[in-house]
Amino acid sequence: MDELDSLFVNGRVITPDGPLDGDVAVGVTDGTIAAIGTPASLPSADRVVDLDGQYLLPGVVDCHVHTRSPGDEHKEDWTTITRAAAAGGVTTLIAMPNTDPIVSTPDRLRRVYEIADRDALVDFQSYGVLTAENTAQVTPLAEAGAAGYKVFLGTTFGEIEPPNDGQLFDAMKEIAETGLRVGFHEENDDILSFYEAETKAAGRNRALDHARSRPVVAEAEAVQRTTLFSEHTGCPVHMFHLSSGTAAEIVARGKARGVNVSAETCPHYLWFDEDVYAEKGNAARVQPPIRSTAERDRLWEVGIDGDGVDCVATDHAPHTDEEKGLSDPFGNTWESISGFVGVETEVPAMATFVDEGRLSLGEWIRLHCVRPAKLWGLYPQKGSLQVGTDADFTVVDPAVEWTLDRRSLHSKSTATPFDGARFRGRATMTVVRGSVVYAEGEVLASPGDGERVPVGETVDASALE
Asked: What fold is seen in the domain 59-378?
């Protein structure tokens, strides 16, 4: 073997089965992993990177972010979100399509790719949206390279009209033919509208009131309905930002019947319960909302420790302090907007769960690297740590203890309920296709360094390892 470009040594290489035994190094040439073995067995390299005993993970894939570009760049843009991703240890992002304009046609998808090609610091993909108006665009969006589709069943930022059940069922037959997956904002909008109106009429306007106006049954019904549609169409389906153990149980039951249904949850649903609203107010306002202690604990039990959740993502949803109402976070919740940033807190949150014994290292890798790449057709190029695949690494110091100050975040908007949270573990280096894009507290990549990831085959979630 010829001389390597880079050799990463003295780290603990983490795979889905846990840490590799012994002294293991990873060699990189031309942006791909060229060799994995003992340092003595590998060729010399132009550059040797000493990881000083830290974890070397496959690059983290966040399959649920809102870039706000095009159309709402005052909140975020492709440069700022990918700068934040690099600083947070995230090597690949998949962007949501509720931009302005929404990503409902091939031309609009290509425009997103053009912007990201110019501005992104890490690698990327994008979903296309499925609405009441564009069901004819299913196959054209697939041919244009979309990672999959997003349907907004419940009210959210952008007020996108979903297809009715007949349109959705029919479109899912065509999606099944493309081989792609369709994901849902899975809340029943009729239930949401009824309880929001009732809550407002009663004069209840705290952040907790907003949360309880979006009850668990709204999420559970949407999961049940779309899982049933999947069973009858053969269309792979995904539940974005699953927030409750009740809904995770429905996913697990679907898988047990052989339905190709997958789900993600977010660190904030695993970390917080409803008490966060008394402490953080509208800074924690999000849709679907953070749930009760019982639902959070059940989410861990049947979701993370069972078969109800396949992966972790952030729903990174930046809004300005003014839009969140942070000058008075305990003010009228109906004057605040839902969502907050997450790409710089997901790795430390997951590392903290590992430190606390809630997760093994192998489970973390499956949730945060391997499965998101498999579900959206990016594996093994992303998330695998295999010879011949992209040399994407997330390097984590598991021992460092630190407290988040949101003023240190790299996003354009920095509202987060994790402000002031105490973590154990932190991303110290991020490597994308062999290039170190973040190290020693500095973002080293430039806009345009990120590349679009081609989409290949997805997996059957009912048989996902």
From this structure: TIM Barrel (3.20.20)
